[in-house]
Amino acid sequence: MSNEPSATGTSPRTPRPGAQKSSGAVTKKGAAKEKPSTALPPVGEEESKNPEEYQCSGILETDFAELCIRSGYTDFPKVVTRPRPNQNFVLSASLSEKPIQDDQRLSASCSQNSLESKYVFFRPSIQVELEQEDSKAVKEIYIRGWKVEDRILGIFSKCLPSLSQLQAINLWKVGLTDKTLATFIAILPLCSSTLRKVSLEGNPLPEQSYYKLMGLDSTIAHLSLRNNSIDDHGAQLLGQALSTLHTSNRTLVSLNLGFNHIGDKGAGYIADGLRLNRSLLWLSLAHNRIQDKGALKLAEVLRPFELTHREVVERRRLLLEKGSQERSRSPSSSRHGDSKTDREKPQTAISNVVSGDKPEKMQTMKTPKGLGKKKEKSGEVLKKEERPGPGQSPTQGTPKKEDATKASKGKVTIPEQKMSKGKGTKMGSKEKRSILLESELVVEATEMVNPLLEPVEHRDGKVFLPGNRVLLHLNLLRNRITEVGLEGFLTAVQYQVQVSKPKTSSKGPLGLLWLSLAKNCFDPQCPTYTMIQELMLPRDPVKSKVKEEEATAT
Question: Check: CATH 3.80.10.10 for 215-302+467-553?
Answer without folding.
Answer: yes
